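Ticket #4471: structure export looks truncated?
Reporter: QA, pipeline team
Priority: medium

Steps to reproduce: submit the single chain below to the structure queue and open the exported record.
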Amino acid sequence: MKLWQKLIYIVLCVIIILPITACDTNQESAAGERVVPPERQYTFWIKTGDRQFTDYGESPGIQYLETLSYGIDEKGNEKYLDLSFIQPVSGSEADNFNTLIATGDYMDVMDLSAYSGKAIDLYEDGVALDITEYVEKYMPNYMVFLDAHPDLKATATNIIDGERRFIQIFNYSDVPPDMWGGFHYRRDWIVKYGKNPLDGSAFSGAYARSNPDGTPNIDSWEDNVVFPSGNPDPIYISDWEWMFGVFDLAMADLGITDGYCMSLYYPGFIATGDLMSGFGGGNNSWYKTEDNQIVFGGTSDTFRTYLQAMNTWYKNGWIDTAFPEHTADVFYIIDKTKIFSGKVGLWWGSAYALGGRIANPDDPFLDGFVGYAAPQPINDVYGSEAQQNKMPNAMLTNSQEGLPYIVTSSIEGKDVETLFTFLDHMYSLDGALVRNFGLTKEQYELTRNEFMTENGMTEGSYTQVVDPDGVTRYQIYPDIISRGLNVGVGAIRLPGLELFSLNSKAGNDKGYNDSFVRWMMYENTATLPMSFTNLLSGEDSKTYAKVSTSIYEFMNKNVPPFIKGAKDPFNDEDWEAFSKAMYKYDPNRVTVIFQELADVMYGK
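Actual output as written to the record:
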């Protein structure tokens, strides 16, 4: 099923399942005076609230959700609920969570973002409940979503006494969220110093659109660049190598003697598989194949071929010679001083440098700067045929799977039907709209929420707009966003569905939106999700932690010499010695553990 077809299927399903009844007129007029019985007063522990509210229960989304009825009781009365929130002081989240668990003074629903353990640990300690019966009976929207996403469904449950059981509820995104970063490169250098590899002609480019004040729109850059592959983007490793040659010309012309073509993370690789997986698939850790076979990639042909390329690039002077020294830098902002000085041609970073954001006409190295997003590249140069022309399948991406929540034994004696009916509402279209975008004008009228009134949101917080691609989506009013109030208008701290597919991008220039398309050109199918690794039992989890820590420490020490030339990745003897030393840590132990788990969760 194609992505758009799946989305339509989900939306239709959630619209028709379990409609939530609004209050009748008399009940609306008395909403502020309604007394909710104790069995329908529910407490939530959330790691983060919103800076706009001392009490997250004051947010517009929460107050509106409390005006809705979630069923009829045995006397024929509407069932309303009351939500209260506990959020720790910033910096004390983990201590607060652990203290509540230790003292038994926990909330009915708790997010696990501050917990270092796993949901199964809390279940075995009697804190988290087995909620299978309630999820299956009262959460049809949640189940419809899982049925439409079998990979997510596979790890939504835990195996308890040989059976799949729900002991946590996940936030999910309706589609994979846009990635917040990826590879960047100096597009302006390509335009100025490159030549069309097909006919030798010069390139040209300029900003195509202006802002209302007449200044150039820094995301509207357009040009006629063509790479050796014939594409307007660097799709292949051969495109990257051609690009590095252009960067050499640029730095020579500008007199940059302390710059370099490409920054590299200090271990010599990004463990998620970025750049690496284009050399045959997978990463240098444990990953799964299309048929759910678990593979350890630390001694694979993919990793060796990747190192052969990095070794060659280093010899050619394309990689920062001091890359192993940047141990304090995170992978997405390595040697930021040089990046912001305009001395680096390609790097992994967030959206901070897209377009003309760091251009500076008073600095010769930043004058005319245009940053472009590059897709994960496909190897067409190094290694055997098996390592070439394979689409990348492992890289850092935002998962559709989000924060998990548990329902605790504190709920015992309360109305679980109403609670789970409410939780399920947050996975319906109506509930998800409130969660993500806040209130319409009509919904505001029901609550007269103080925050919205004081901030001039009497017309509601969002509207529908038609995006440039012709799809009607939802958009929080720009003035709300510009005032930094957009997070507070909904109910984003509740479990529920993220509507990324329906979040309008009409406020962004096409050039900016296209960057995220490039970063998400390939689907990440190989990475083992956290919900999978968190299913390991206590002893298996300890084994995984011990083995993986030892292996990463070994790699961090022994991979850079292959890149810098002290060892030769083209030499069989050197590679076999590396592999033999690696296997002293017995990665196969973890491979077997993961494969047994994958056979259960994903099926043989």
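Status: closed, not a bug. The export was complete when the record was re-opened. Leaving a note from the reviewer for reference: The longest strand covers residues 344-350.
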